[in-house]
């Protein structure tokens, strides 16, 4: 992509977010667009595929803090017309020609790139900014015969990171799993190797800019630099484009990756696959692929809020079992175990079964937390009703709320005394 393309594209508008949007807002907007326009969701839809690619390109810049800062600075500097933008600086040049600037000689914007004006070594300048944006080094390349400007070719650029979602069952999240992941995403063209030229041919160096990707342009007393229009700022020209990618060096293909989901993965956790994102440009490395894991809820088990390695389970018990104590059989993620319920246990008591939680690769092991809950029958037989009435009479002197009443009365006396 040329420098002009990058600065003139509104990535915020592409994702439908404000310029001060947070990183989370940008991520949510991108994921929504990606899901709606994914080639798997809309196969054969050219507009959806273009929208998918454009959103990925925008997210690759705005999700990177450093790239986003450079992009914002470049758009503020050039997009708003400062220094005449990329069009040759008509407004600024006219002012200088009228003699109203007070400059005694010609002003060369090449000075801004750290190449003139006695700039001290290491002082940076606009060249440092454009070097990060458009691929040039210190003293950004201006191409052509611009005095004092660098002539190095645009440097390689890393590909954008890509994010996708997978959904797994609760048992797979606890024990870990390996699953195939099918993606339809931009990848380096295998036919041309990413250079955009038809096999058997090679891109040639652009004669207009000498391979720098940027040329100088004079307007009155000013000299401006802009991306070379003949090569679109790439520094090379493809005379015979690759039939697979049309000269872009990138093609959208379906590929299948094997993703290892570790035991104990949390809902919403991101797993990074290095080098599996979008391909880089000019031979640069590929970005990373981030897999966001979504875990389905389980009918029986849950995860402890205090320790995600501990599993939770609620087991119904009868009143006699709580009073007299008992041994019950409870399910686990890998079988069954016997659990002793102590006599006199209260409904809601939590008992711990050691080592029956998440088993992590590093050796850490969670527990199973079993909460016993009193099961109250909705209907009673005549025999059960008689037995319950007899129990009520036998325990008439027992007030389960006596302590609560005592505390309330004590609080009332304290309030009266004060």
What does this protein look like?
The protein has two domains: 3-295, no CATH class; 302-376, Urease metallochaperone UreE, N-terminal domain (HSP40/DNAj peptide-binding domain, Sandwich). Strand 5 (214-219) and strand 6 (222-227) form a beta hairpin. 28% of the residues lie in helices and 22% in strands. The strands form six sheets. A four-stranded mixed sheet has the order 11-12-16-15. Strands 1-6-5 form a three-stranded mixed sheet. Helix 3 packs antiparallel against helix 4 (46-62) and helix 5 (65-79) crosses helix 7 (126-134). It is elongated, with a radius of gyration of 34 Å. The model is unreliable at 80-153 (pLDDT under 50). It is α+β, with helices and mostly antiparallel strands.
